[in-house]
Amino acid sequence: MRIDENCFLVTEPIAHRGLWGDGVAENSLSAYKKAAENGYPVEIDLYLSKDGELFSFHDKTLDRMTGESGYIYDKTAAELKSLKLVGSDEGIPTFDQVLSVAENKIPLLIEIKNQPDKSVVDKTVARLKRYGGVFAIQSFNPLYIARVKKLAPEFLRGILATADEEELKNEKPLTRFIIKNTALNFLIKPDFISYDYKGLPLKKRRTKNKAVICWTVTSQEIYDKVKPFADNIIFENFIPER
Fold first, then answer.
1. Exposure string (b/e) for 154-165, b if CB count within 10 Å is 16 or more?
2. In CATH, what number is assigned to the domain containing residue 198?
3. Does residue 237 have an active-site annotation?
4. Which of 21, 53, 110, 130 has its CA 20 to 30 A from that of 204?
5. Using CA atoms, how far apart are residues 70 and 74, in angstroms rounded to an integer?
6. Among the options 33, 58, 113, 180, which is catalytic?
7. pTM: predicted TM-score of the whole model, two decimal places
8. Is 215 inside a domain boundary?
9. How far is CA 24 from CA 39, 57, 147, in A?
10. Would you say residue 171 lies in a domain?
11. From start to end of 54-184, where are the E strands?
């Protein structure tokens, strides 16, 4: 197991899209800075713009967070930089901006989102090879993680999974099976499993030599319930008792 007892993946609760709320927009540089000020690692999500620049944004559509219609990956970098996050004067952060906030301050848990342009993996890995901070990579797409393993076997890597049918309703049957059962772990050899907390506990054969992180915990009550089954949590909407 490459994750030791001092690794951020098992020591500090991880702030989902930063520490947001009370006027701080989720997925904003302010949310990431606030997490850094309070000593929390941050979970972020990555998409490529139409012309190949990496941006930190959770949804594949722009509607909810910007009021603009369309998919994030169908917009150019210039178009994305012209948008503001709802309820904020801040724009959508680029990956470089997030790395500048995090480097030498807080670790990052980086999710590579499934998207049409598969070069997102290569570009993410290439950028991180020039980064001096602490991080780990995860994705729902096991082929992305297999690619990370090939390009940068030294990077800590994890697989995201869920058994929630609502989360999986738009996926093909084979994809649903693979995600629910982390069926390609033999290929990607993940260091950790990041699983929907509602699907815990996992069978020990699935977690052998792996850390277990659960998402997305939204209250201390839920946190207390999942503690026996997970090494760490990804959280939002509350501050976990440390």
1. ebbbbbbbbbee
2. 3.20.20.190
3. no
4. 110
5. 7
6. 58
7. 0.96
8. yes
9. 17, 15, 35
10. yes
11. 54-56, 108-112, 135-139, 157-161
